[in-house]
Design goal:
By secondary structure, the protein is α/β, with parallel strands linked by helices. It has 4 helices and 8 strands, in the order βαβββαβαβββα. The strands form 2 sheets. A 4-stranded mixed beta sheet has the order 1-4-3-2, with helices on one face. Strands 5-8-7-6 form a 4-stranded mixed beta sheet, with helices on one face. The longest helix is centred in the first third of the chain and has 11 residues. The chain is globular and about 45 Å long.
């Protein structure tokens, strides 16, 4: 089933200038987090800066400049719950995962497995959103969704290129 047409843009909203920019994840060790994202995932470092006892960095996917993951790393991070699968994670409130659009879930999972990344569930299809999905986690248990567009799509800008169009609601496909 294709996604429905997008609701009308609300240009009169006092929040109409809001755009997605980054998601931040707290890590206990900067170098280990940097190594995962840069060495394992091939993401690029945009900037590194200090904040108190922490080291922060923006990292970006290999071919996208308008989405950043902010690494917040240093002492004081407590261990988090590591769920055995996606369904188990749905019992807790709060941020659950970050979704990354890919051309092929299966090809991406093959490379992740080769690189020793923990794949949480086998791929599955969600007809309601015309997507093939899978989940992986970083070494600290943070989950990430992979989403591949399948079937017809009324929102090609969201899935044809990694997250392009999602961040700028005025862009059309």
């Amino acid at each position: 089933m294709p996604l429905p047409a997008a609701p009308a843009i609300i240009t009169s909203s006092p929040f109409s200038s809001m755009r997605g920019h980054h998601a931040a994840i707290r890590y206990p060790d900067f170098e280990a987090a940097r190594s995962f994202w840069v060495d394992t995932m091939d993401w690029r470092i945009l900037q590194i800066w200090p904040y108190g006892d922490l080291t922060l960095a923006y990292v970006m996917p290999p071919e996208q400049n308008d989405f950043h993951l902010e690494i917040l790393a240093g002492p004081g991070a407590r261990a988090q719950t590591i769920y055995p699968d996606v369904d188990s994670s749905l019992t807790s409130p709060g941020l659950n995962h970050v979704c990354l659009s890919v051309d092929s879930v299966d090809d991406t999972l093959a490379v992740l497995r080769e690189r020793g990344v923990d794949v949480v569930n086998p791929p599955f299809e969600m007809a309601d959103i015309s997507a093939r999905l899978a989940f992986f986690r970083d070494p600290w248990g943070n989950m990430f969704e992979l989403s591949e567009r399948i079937g017809p799509d009324d929102h090609g800008a969201i899935f044809a290129r990694p997250l392009a169009g999602w961040l700028d609601s005025t862009e059309t496909s």
